[in-house]
Amino acid sequence: MELLSDEQAIRWCAERGLQPVNELPSTRIGFPGGESYRLRLAVAGSATEVVGLGYALAMTAVPGDDETAFQGGLLWLQDWDIWSETTERVGHLLLNSLRQSAQGAGPVRTSPAHVFHRSEFIEAHAALAVALLFQWDAFYVPVIGAFYAFLSHHGQIEVVARDKVTYSDLLARFERGGFSPAAVVHS
């Protein structure tokens, strides 16, 4: 795992065709020319079901649904001190345990982005699960950059595809998985 500052995360995303934007809910990145290909997933159910949703999200860009074919991705935390201290400290302990393997691991505030490499699927899944379980705001971007997901403290994930074909594939994938995706139309 490699840890990045906000500025480094913006550059990492730019290398995948994403650009900084100031629109809600995606306050940091977006696709050039707008984002009309969006779907929303509810983060609901038992902890096991939420961890399963994290798995489905991490596997979405993996060829052939083979964990060993994971190509990598970025989890970029945006806001993580949302709830009570007694709740948040558990999330921080879990996240910091994951971050210990990264060279120069420091405070989340100075390096809130996590780049997971090919051999780090389990770590990527675990970090996504922590963000989802504690309902922290974060972006997840697979290394291929065909889509990104915004995990929200409002108990939802908004998945944004680069194009209509990717959107249709994502919609079908999450429908097959039983996650009841809903199309999002922004005016």
Can you describe what's shown?
By secondary structure, the protein is of the alpha+beta class. It has one domain. It has 5 helices and 8 strands. α3 runs antiparallel to α4.
Give the class from helix and strand content and strand pairing. Answer: alpha+beta
CA radius of gyration: 15 Å
Whole-number mean pLDDT: 90
Output the strand order for the largest sheet: 1-4-3-5-6-7-2-8
Element string (H = helix, E = strand) = EHEHEHEHEEEHE
Compile the SSE list and pairings:
Elements lengths: L1 E3 L1 H9 L23 E5 L4 H13 L13 E7 L5 H15 L13 E4 L4 H13 L3 E6 L4 E6 L3 E6 L2 H13 L5 E3 L3
Antiparallel strand pairs: 1-4, 2-7, 2-8, 3-4, 3-5, 5-6, 6-7
Helix pairs in contact: 2-4, 3-4
Descriptive keywords:
187 residues; alpha+beta; eight-stranded antiparallel sheet; 34% helix; globular
